[in-house]
Amino acid sequence: MHPAPVDVIVPVYNEEAALPAFHRRLTGLDLPVRPIYIDNGSTDGSLRLLHSFAGAVVIEHATNEGYGASLRDGIRRATAERIVIIDADCEYPPEAIPEMVSRLDRADVVYASRFLEPQQTRMGWLKVFGNRVITRLFNLLFHQQLTDLYTGAKAFRREVVADLPMEQNGFEHVLEVAARLARAGRRFAEVHVTFAPRATGVSKMSHLSETIKYMYYLGRYALTLDRGGR
What we know:
Layout: E1 6-12, H1 19-27, E2 33-40, H2 46-52, E3 57-61, H3 67-77, E4 82-86, H4 97-102, E5 109-113, H5 125-142, E6 153-157, H6 158-161, H7 173-183, E7 188-192, H8 207-224
Parallel strand pairs: 1-2, 1-4, 2-3, 5-7
Antiparallel strand pairs: 4-6, 5-6
Helix pairs in contact: 5-8, 7-8
């Protein structure tokens, strides 16, 4: 029996140096994947590279519309019953995708966690601290047991996100989707991944300002979302 196809949604912004290795690793998996790349107004050679990848779907944003806008457009284009979101910088190993997808047999959404098992993390302490504070507050307010809310790799059953309202265009999209899914009673699971800091390029996130923004939206969604996640 052949495994079911998987749509892999990959937001891209100036990742020319990382894309060849990422695409090679992704398409080398023992899993039928269809990459859906969303180029978010890259100013380097990312878009040219994306169009050279045989079998890849490429969505072009003329300007930088934001991380959330990219993921929203990718989800709308997806047709497979299993959807994976992963960053293109190889910080999260594409090789984790088969395990994430397999866990969807028992869960609605699967997060790749950098903190599920003890490890010698190579992340900055401030980034680790901020993630853990936000994750614990999220767990408290939304009755979950996640260890890594702001992971850059996750898998979904298509039916749980196909009609989910998604309003946020920036990195706060991550919190919005998690909050709506939690309120809708969806089942979360996690798999452990070994985090490898990017070898090329720079992070697109300003962690201090984003943490402040996350705190605001965390309170907002805790107070306003109904049990259907709306």
